[in-house]
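Hi all, posting the design record for the shared folder.

TITLE: backbone redesign
STEP: 1 of 1
STRUCTURE INPUT:
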């Protein structure tokens, strides 16, 4: 009998706590690096064959940059 009273009391408390207040809405924070990434791709560089590489053409993919010097 005691257990039944405890279970009924706990169920009543849970029902009272969960009624009425909706859960808070989760809103994603803006990405602080989004502007920096676009700014970092704003460059042109000469290629080995004499052409030009536009940094913006690298957006959206994986890139490995290899810097070297002949000295």
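Okay, here is what came back for every position:
SEQUENCE:
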């Amino acid at each position: 009998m005691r257990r039944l009273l405890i279970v009924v009391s706990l169920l009543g408390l849970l029902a009272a706590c969960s009624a009425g207040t909706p859960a808070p809405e989760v809103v994603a924070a803006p990405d602080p690096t989004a502007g920096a990434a676009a700014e970092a791709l704003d460059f042109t560089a000469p290629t080995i064959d004499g052409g030009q590489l536009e940094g913006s053409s690298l957006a959206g993919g994986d890139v490995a940059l290899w810097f070297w010097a002949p000295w």
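COMMENT: The first helix runs from residue 2 to 18.
Let me know if anyone wants the other runs.
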